[in-house]
Amino acid sequence: MHLDLRHLRTIAAIHEHGGLGRAAEVLNLTQSALSHQLKAMEAQAGVPLVVRRARPLRLTAAGLRLLRTAEAVLPLIANAEAEFRDVEKGRAGRLHVAMECHACFDWLLPVMDRFRRNWPDVDIDIRAGLAFQALPALVRETADLVITSDPEPLEGITYQPLFDYAPTLVVPAGHPLVAKGYAEAADFADLTLIHYPMDRARLDIFSHLLTPAKVEPAALREVEQTAVALMLVAAGRGVTVMPDWVVRREAANPELAFLPMTRTGLRRRMYAALRTEALALPYMAHFLRLARTDSLQLQSSD
């Protein structure tokens, strides 16, 4: 017997309503059409599916076996159809976030946590493994949103501004640069620079200061964790550059000093990159609102 959803819905309706008349109404068929359909099903099966003498109609042993299949399959189909409707209306979907900002974990995780509580049917993930190739992943649709400070013109990709920040030099208290009041590229020629394990092109200190000035630090040291980097600076093992909103929490630390980059200071902007059509998704719009709200709190936390 060749089964399709129509057969399963028919046998379930007949069992539930005990007759062709009411079952036909539920299935939006005439009673005659449903009767012909039932006969065609029985012809395919080669056995009766209902006991016609019974009132209300009862299913035969073969009909009950078909009913068990209907009871297993139809709820799955109904759930899938509901999910498709939710996706179409923007209530469900996927939000896989990739980052080109290593320091953004501390800021992003609370945003994602609040987002998931509001949108439980959206599949969320943070794609840390795509950190160095995040924008290509967005184009390939293996990521849905990228946190970046370096927008690149890409077809079909839009950039939504989140917040501005200032890359800030962190040095041990009493460091000679404290008296100067700021740092410039030439100062790094004699310094050990502690930095996140990222491509130089994605680090503000290189892309917007050292590389244009053709200056290389005396030594480099990669550190994964912000707290570890700050501890090493306090111990006199080097200096580091972090966004102002990251180091603001350490403003009262007597072992550290914080200096602007260049006399006038560097200013950068963080963006959320996403595919242009995703702007119409309600859950995406809500995520952007949450991200901007949290970023405002970061900037006003001092």
UniProtKB/TrEMBL annotation:
UniProt-listed SUPFAM superfamilies: Periplasmic binding protein-like II (SSF53850), Winged helix' DNA-binding domain (SSF46785)
Main localization (coarse): cytoplasm
Pfam family, any one: HTH_1
Keyword DNA-binding attributed: yes
Gene Ontology molecular-function annotations: DNA-binding transcription factor activity; transcription cis-regulatory region binding
Keyword line: Activator, Amino-acid biosynthesis, Cytoplasm, DNA-binding, Methionine biosynthesis, Repressor, Transcription, Transcription regulation
CDD domains: PBP2_MetR
Localization terms from the record: Cytoplasm
InterPro entries found in the cross-reference section: LysR_HTH_N, LysR_subst-bd, MetR_PBP2, WH-like_DNA-bd_sf, WH_DNA-bd_sf
Origin superkingdom: Bacteria
GO cellular component: cytoplasm
Segments forming domain HTH lysR-type: 3-60
Family annotation (Gene3D superfamilies): Periplasmic binding protein-like II, Winged helix-like DNA-binding domain superfamily/Winged helix DNA-binding domain
Family, similarity comment: Belongs to the LysR transcriptional regulatory family.
Protein name from the UniProt record: HTH-type transcriptional regulator MetR
Native source species: Paracoccus suum
Lineage: Bacteria, Pseudomonadati, Pseudomonadota, Alphaproteobacteria, Rhodobacterales
